[in-house]
């Protein structure tokens, strides 16, 4: 079964859709719906998205990277390997930021002090997340459309 008509397995198509939805929701929530006025809703949206992404990394992307590590190590200068390594690096940075901010948010909810992080650091995390998605799209196109 396939969604996009590529050589990709269904689980990778579903993961791609989930990632696009998450980044779109994050961008809309961060830049269109002014989170300053609704910190609790903003934190809940971001923390939920972070948990969903963490599950996708642990269950789908991480195992795929581990399974294919031999090909990356064999030719790390190959375009596919470079895309993969850049995607994984940015993804780790974005997810790490998301986990830290989510932890701070959840701790703040318990103590009634909503202070997750500085706006600049949150925007940096969103930038990493967006760039990670773009590289993930590049990964998908390279491995499932072109190769």
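Q: What amino acid sequence fits the structure above?
A:
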């Amino acid at each position: 079964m396939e969604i996009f008509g590529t050589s990709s397995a269904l689980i990778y198509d579903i993961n791609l859709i989930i990632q696009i939805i998450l980044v779109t929701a994050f961008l809309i929530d961060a830049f269109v719906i002014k989170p300053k006025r609704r910190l609790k809703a903003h934190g809940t949206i971001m923390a939920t998205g972070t948990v969903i992404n963490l599950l996708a990394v642990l269950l789908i992307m991480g195992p795929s990277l581990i399974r294919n590590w031999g090909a990356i190590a064999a030719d790390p200068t190959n375009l596919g390997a470079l895309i993969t390594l850049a995607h994984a690096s940015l993804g780790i940075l974005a997810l790490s930021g998301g986990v830290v901010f989510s932890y701070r948010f959840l701790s703040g909810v318990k103590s009634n002090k909503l202070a997750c992080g500085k706006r600049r650091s949150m925007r940096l995390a969103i930038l990493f997340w967006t760039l990670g998605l773009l590289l993930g799209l590049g990964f998908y196109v390279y491995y499932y459309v072109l190769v």
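Q: And what stands out in the fold?
A: The chain has one domain: 10-67+79-146.
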